[in-house]
Design brief:
A seven-stranded parallel sheet has the order 7-8-9-10-11-12-13. Strands 1-4-5 form a three-stranded antiparallel sheet. Helix 6 packs antiparallel against helix 7, helix 7 packs across helix 8 and helix 9 packs parallel to helix 10. The protein starts with a strand and ends in an 11-residue tail after the last helix. With 428 residues, the chain is of the alpha/beta class. The chain has two domains: 134 residues, Enolase-like, domain 1 (2-Layer Sandwich), CATH 3.30.390; 250 residues, Alpha-Beta Barrel (TIM Barrel). The chain binds D-glucarate (GKR) and magnesium ion. The site of D-glucarate has 12 residues, from loops.
Length: 428
């Protein structure tokens, strides 16, 4: 089998005004959809975080991809490695998300080739990753401080009256009470059994109070996590970590660097998780040497694909790390890919992150994928088990053209609300 066509479609999906360490989400988040076609008439799909740079990097390898055998990932990956400039974890940048492009190229092609192979052999991607360990993959509620508004077309003031989660998704949440109300609505709608708050937005004391309020509201049976996206100093991390001792399932990236995380880890009993200080295979020796975290949050978009995430899971098993998954905003192709990974990972030790409840648009046939009892059930059908809804894809591409965004820049968005606001790598 040979790949004959590679299509790259940038899209924009509505996204509410969510706050984080780097500023504010724009009314749209960008994703890129990759489709491979073969001479056997079988196709494969993937979705990655979008930006003009990622799209350029994907287009730059098109002539390497075309003519390749999608069933020989090692061969294609080796040829891609010759074409793509080397990229270390430093290129990740200091923002909450990952600024690298090469990992996205690998990720898109790995996922699309797996989807293709699954369709060719009539088996799910999870089977190709080693076998299905669980059919229902648990996800965690992902709370955000936010301003009023639902994002997307609705950002322009036409929000219809809403109730339940639809209303909470629009409502501002800027204090512990708002966060608890958001959590109640999200848990009620999706049945999540663990809860994460995106921190790094307000004074640490306010975020500690929000976690204490969540504990008070949900009791000790619901695991809680806080992620300040490395905005705290080591001292602040230790002080706040001590105040939250016994309340958190894990504290995610309180501060920067493996050395910093290791110092916090030595001072606390609460486990530490990361998607910021150990983010690539290059970082694993440092992780072991310093003992920087207990749990590594993989993300197939940033570790170079589903197969690379399975390799990471094996390293985690060897070095006694827990493993779970990080998320940025995404649509259904990525949710399906994450679910196959979660279904196949034997040592998945925590419910996965997902931003999915914050998005409303969808580009796969059948519309929004269901999250029930906090879980996504492995999609039926071969490969990823999802098909593109062509009309919805065309609309999301049209939105991309109209939105005029070429990259994620939460600082610029924040400056529209707070003129002069500046991202700072360590704030408190
Ligand atoms: O989307 O605002 C956001 C998050 O802060 C995201 O960019 C992070 O990468 O969710 C992420 C995390 O766990 O660090
Ligand atoms: Mg994180």
């Amino acid at each position: 089998m040979k790949i004959t066509e590679m299509h790259i479609t940038p899209i924009a999906l509505g996204d509410p005004p969510l706050l984080n360490a780097a500023g504010l989400h724009a009314p749209y988040c960008l994703r890129t959809v990759v489709e491979l076609q073969t001479d056997a008439g079988i196709h494969g799909l993937a979705e990655v975080p979008g930006s003009a740079a990622v799209d350029r990097a994907l287009a730059a390898v098109r002539d390497t991809v075309i003519g390749s055998d999608p069933l020989n990932w090692h061969g294609l990956r080796a040829r891609l490695a010759e074409r793509c400039a080397a990229e270390t974890s430093v290129a990740r940048g200091d923002k909450p998300w990952d600024g690298r492009t090469r990992v996205q190229v690998y990720s898109a092609l790995d996922v699309a080739c797996l989807d293709l192979a699954g369709r060719a052999f009539g088996v799910p991607v999870a089977t190709l990753l080693g076998g299905i360990v669980r059919e229902r993959v648990p996800y965690s509620a992902y709370l955000f401080y936010k301003y009023e508004g639902a994002g997307g077309e609705l950002a322009f003031g036409t929000d219809p009256p809403a109730t339940g989660w639809a209303a909470a998704r629009q409502r501002a949440a800027l204090d512990p009470g708002g966060i608890v109300a958001q959590a109640r609505a999200m848990v009620q709608e999706f049945g999540f059994e663990s809860i994460k708050l995106k921190g790094g937005v307000f004074e640490p004391a306010q975020e500690v109070a929000a976690m204490q309020a969540l504990r008070e509201a949900f009791g000790p049976g619901v695991p809680l996590r806080l992620d300040p996206n490395a905005l705290w100093s080591v001292e602040t991390s230790i002080r706040c970590g001590r105040e939250l001792e016994g309340i958190l399932e894990y504290l995610e990236d309180p501060c920067r660097t493996q050395e910093g995380m290791a110092a916090v880890r030595r001072a606390l009993k609460t486990p530490l998780a990361t998607n910021m200080c150990t983010t690539s295979f290059d970082d694993l020796p440092g992780s072991v040497r310093h003992g920087s975290e207990d749990i590594i949050l993989t993300d197939h978009h940033f570790w170079g694909g589903l197969r690379a995430s399975m390799e990471l899971a094996a390293h985690c098993r060897t070095f006694g790390r827990g493993v779970s998954m990080h998320s940025n905003n995404h649509a259904g192709i990525s949710l399906a890919a994450m679910t196959h990974l979660g279904a196949a990972m034997p040592n998945l030790s925590y419910a996965l992150d997902t931003h999915y409840p914050w998005q409303r648009d969808e580009i796969v046939v059948g519309g929004r994928i269901k999250i029930e009892g906090g879980c996504v059930t492995l999609p039926k059908g071969p490969g990823l088990g999802v098909e593109l809804d062509r009309a919805a894809l065309a609309q999301a591409h049209d939105t991309y053209r109209r939105a005029g965004l070429t990259e994620r820049n939460d600082e610029i968005e924040m400056q529209k609300k707070t003129p002069g606001w500046k991202f700072s790598a360590t704030r408190w």
